[in-house]
Hints:
This protein is of the alpha/beta class and 349 residues long. Helix content is 16%, strand content 21%. It has one domain: Metallo-beta-lactamase, Chain A, CATH 3.60.15.10. It has eight helices and 16 strands.
Amino acid sequence: MAVATESENAVYVTISALDAGQITLPDHLFVAGGNPELRNTVPSLSFLIQHPSPPISRGGNVTNLVFDLGVKRDLTGYALAQRPLIAAREPIITDPDCGASLRKGVGDKDRDEELLDPEKDVDLVILSHVHWDHIGTPTDFPSTTFVVGSGTLDLLRNGAGPLYPAELFNTDELPASRTVELPPVPNRDSGFQKYYARPNAPVHTPTPADTQAKLPPSANKWSWQPFSGFPRTIDLFGDKSVYVIDSPGHLHGHVNLLVRISEKKYVYLGGDCCHDTRILSGEKEIAEYDDGRGGIRSVHVDTGLARKTLAEIDEGVSQLRKDADVEIVLAHDKGWREHNRHRFWPGKL
């Protein structure tokens, strides 16, 4: 990929981090060999991406896209069966949540003006997946179109096997009339048929003909194609500025984003591809533990596939780095949050 030759017609976006709550993770459940006494309170990051195109559903001069919504500010909004699991992640910080961060930005709760109003200023929300610490409060976005990975709506309705029963999810979590699933991914690795097969794997929900979702014009051409070293990507706006990256293994429908912010700079938003930068670098491995049913599991639905996704990320980023800088940000990177407060909205990466 020769990034430099594309500069004349290239489209770039801006990206800002958003505080969207914090949760506490036991180290040994996420990192192999982790300290069983260590618990880290980490962010559940969201991101505002602004694309220089006419907005889809409102006035203005940019399309506002939010990636992930973090933690609900009202924990009673989660399904009853989910709440004991959430209690195990205390202390939990819910203020500011994603909506408050959009309105006031970082560090100034007394700001007089609203920077962005989630009720009317956000065009698109893309969720990396629908675990409780990423789903946030979708009702804060009553005019927004939601985009999720294939199978997500079925997952919310019916669950995905014994480790993810339907009782853990709110069936009406996302607005049916304004939610669109990305296309199913063809020709995935045949070595992981259990992950993709029924009855545990959720099925794709087609967009109904009467949908109220408002998508970019490029949506009618969305398909999974290789880009750089990434085998399955969707060019979201059709201009190579924002790519959705298929990143299976953690939870069905899990996706990442790759955004281009300048001629030679990309940001890779890794969601929950892993939960510690030491795993991303290869210094540590994904923790595995007793699943309570006589087997071994991790925080991923399929640990082997999660490892394969990490290898694909490494290959894709390595290819891009031949011509450009790539910054990788994980959803729960405490160190990144602490050292980059100036890059939170209204600041920029």
